[in-house]
Write a structure and sequence with these properties.
Strand content: 15-25%
Distance between the termini: 39 Å
Shape: elongated
InterPro entries: F-box-like_dom_sf (IPR036047), LRR_dom_sf (IPR032675)
Number of helices: 20
CATH topology of one domain: Rossmann fold
Low-confidence stretches: 1-7, 23-31, 44-48, 434-442, 564-570
Structural class: alpha/beta
Length: 570
């Protein structure tokens, strides 16, 4: 729900909501617009009810169903036919007429007149079947009529299926400037993407006065040329979306970096390519990108090496501490495949011959969670370190790796290189998915924990075999070599809902604690700081507790056991 919708909801008195049969504590926000329209249409002839609603309230309620520019004109017509009063209310409510799809000049003029002087949100959808000269001329003539309304257009969404149609659109906007235009969205669904000449980004930028008013730009499947973008007046963009869902080749990372140099006000950056990867091509001579207002950086699809180029180019001294990073990567990307051991992945092409890429975030992670499900794939979710001046400010980081033909559990089993730097992670949490989805022998705890030398707190949800292999990984080698102990700073190990059947897991626990204590006594001359917490452990017996006491380890293990009759499958 956007702010405008919420403000209109708040403006309706509770008494008038109750007259409609809507409880005020729930409000209209929980009702779908279609349900509201149905409610109003079914009660319009109840004069006692309709007369109690003010014209302003009716107009606000009508605005809730006008959420689709392609349908708004038809919906307004239907509501106007309900009764004379509704027709009058709609006719005298300018805000109901501001959003529409440009079908013809007559309809557009009607919306322009009835909306008064309010800014307009216009959608253009033009399609030609055979790209004949007659069809292109007809579409161009129709678009020519658009210039009459451009001076009031605030948001413009354009859907075309031929690059020839974009030329008259740019021409109209250039020749008849839109001083109020703040949002532009262009989708080009041309099937012959590779035969087109790229559109110079400067042509798009010139549709407003050096993009001084344009704050949101969304381009889908638009073949672009970004050259010569590093120099020039800065753009005023707050949001930039570049999406490629077909075989259109996206711009290379070098060109994107050039563009971002002129977008210092950017708050949201979204990049997506489903088929063709963003080409890698960063020059060492590029200066750092300053994005001091960036709130969200999202990337989806293929081209992780280009993503790494952009991340490396961001100036870490000016990057906000609260920026959210959301990356959804695909195994269709050969550079993503390079993170996994080849023998586990039945792919058709070998991984990239280049060294495995690592995504360098402007600030290091201090908390990490891993998940692995068939629906979401292999996921890393973390939080970055806050600033020294404001440590409470944290940024969320999400890296998800998906595959259409490789199960998520196989991805985890084959993971050999971590895609992000987790060397400064202090807290690590692993959900039960490890025990439920991945064979225990394939849980490469030694490799995973080896990526986090600064780890201090570890929380694991797992079964018996999970914790056994974890204890083995945390145990120092028999020679107590300083290089063979993992996570020397680990102070807290919490095992949640672990299945503790028989003496075997207790033996592994005792051996791990004993060996770590001996290692610390030999190499650190101090007591081992590790404490183990068994939270809701199932199957813990008095004999297990006696074994702890026999080895003098009762002060190192805290147990919260479930009743013995509780079964694991419950």
């Amino acid at each position: 729900m956007d702010s405008l919708f919420a403000s209109r909801l708040a403006a309706i008195p509770s008494a008038q909501l109750r007259q409609l049969g809507i409880r005020s504590e729930h409000g209209l926000s929980r009702k779908k617009p279609q349900d509201i329209a149905k409610l109003l249409r079914s009660s319009y002839n109840k004069r006692s009810l309709a007369d109690k609603l003010s014209d302003e309230t009716l107009a606000n309620i009508f605005s809730y169903v006008l959420d689709n520019p392609f349908e708004n004109d038809r919906v307004l017509g239907e509501l106007s036919l309900i009764c004379e009063r509704w027709n009058k209310v709609i006719d005298q409510a300018p805000h109901l007429w501001t959003s529409f799809c440009f079908v013809d000049e007559r309809m557009a003029r009607r919306h322009s007149q009835k909306s008064g002087r309010l800014p307009l949100d216009v959608v253009i959808q033009e399609a030609v079947t055979d790209c004949s000269i007659s069809q292109l001329v007809e579409a161009a003539v129709k678009l020519y009529r658009l210039h009459e309304f451009l001076s009031r257009v605030r948001s413009l969404e354009i859907f075309v299926n031929s690059p020839a149609l974009t030329i008259p659109i740019y021409a109209q906007i250039r020749d008849y400037p839109a001083p109020l235009l703040t949002k532009l969205s262009l989708t080009d669904t041309c099937p012959d993407q590779d035969t087109r000449d790229p559109v110079a980004f400067s042509n798009i930028a010139s549709i407003t006065s050096a993009m001084l008013t344009l704050t949101s730009l969304s381009l889908q499947d638009v073949k672009l040329n970004f050259w010569h973008q590093q120099k020039g007046a800065p753009y005023n963009l707050r949001r930039l979306d570049l999406m490629y869902t077909s075989n259109t080749v996206p711009p290379p990372s070098a060109a994107l970096i050039r563009l971002l140099h002129r977008c210092k006000q950017l708050e949201v950056l979204q990049l997506r390519s489903d088929v063709e990867a963003f080409p890698h091509g960063r020059s060492a001579s590029f200066k750092s990108i300053s994005l001091p207002r960036l709130q969200t950086f999202a990337f989806e699809g293929v081209g992780v090496r280009a993503l790494s180029d952009i991340l490396s180019a961001i100036d870490t001294t000016t990057a906000p501490a609260s920026t959210r990073y959301d990356f959804k990567l695909s195994t269709l990307d050969l550079d993503v495949m390079a993170w996994f051991r080849e023998e586990y992945l039945p792919h058709l092409q070998p991984p990239s011959s280049l060294p495995p890429v690592k995504l360098s975030l402007p600030r290091p992670l201090h908390h990490l969670e891993m998940s692995c499900t068939a629906k979401s794939g292999l996921a890393f979710h973390g939080r970055t370190l806050g600033l020294a001046s404001d440590p409470a400010v944290e940024a969320n980081v999400g890296v998800v790796i998906t595959s259409s033909d490789i199960p998520a559990k196989v991805l985890f089993k084959a993971l050999e290189h971590c895609p992000i730097d987790i060397s400064q992670v202090a807290t690590f949490e692993v959900s039960r998915w490890l025990g439920d989805y991945a064979p225990p022998l394939d849980m490469r705890w030694s490799a995973v924990l080896g990526w986090m030398p600064a780890l201090t707190k570890l929380t694991v949800h797992g079964d018996r075999e999970t914790v056994e292999h974890l204890f083995c990984a945390l145990s120092p080698g028999p020679q107590f070599d300083a290089t063979e102990v993992l996570c020397p700073g680990l102070t807290t190990l919490t095992l949640v809902e672990a299945l503790w059947t028989g003496p075997v897991p207790t033996v592994f626990l005792l051996e791990m604690l004993t060996l770590r204590q001996a290692w610390f006594a030999t190499h650190k001359s101090e007591e081992c700081p590790l404490r183990v917490f068994l939270d809701h452990v199932d199957g813990w017996t008095p004999s297990d507790h006696a074994a702890l006491a026999e080895h003098g380890l009762t002060n190192f293990v805290s147990i919260h056991a479930l009743p013995s009759f509780v079964q694991y499958y419950l």
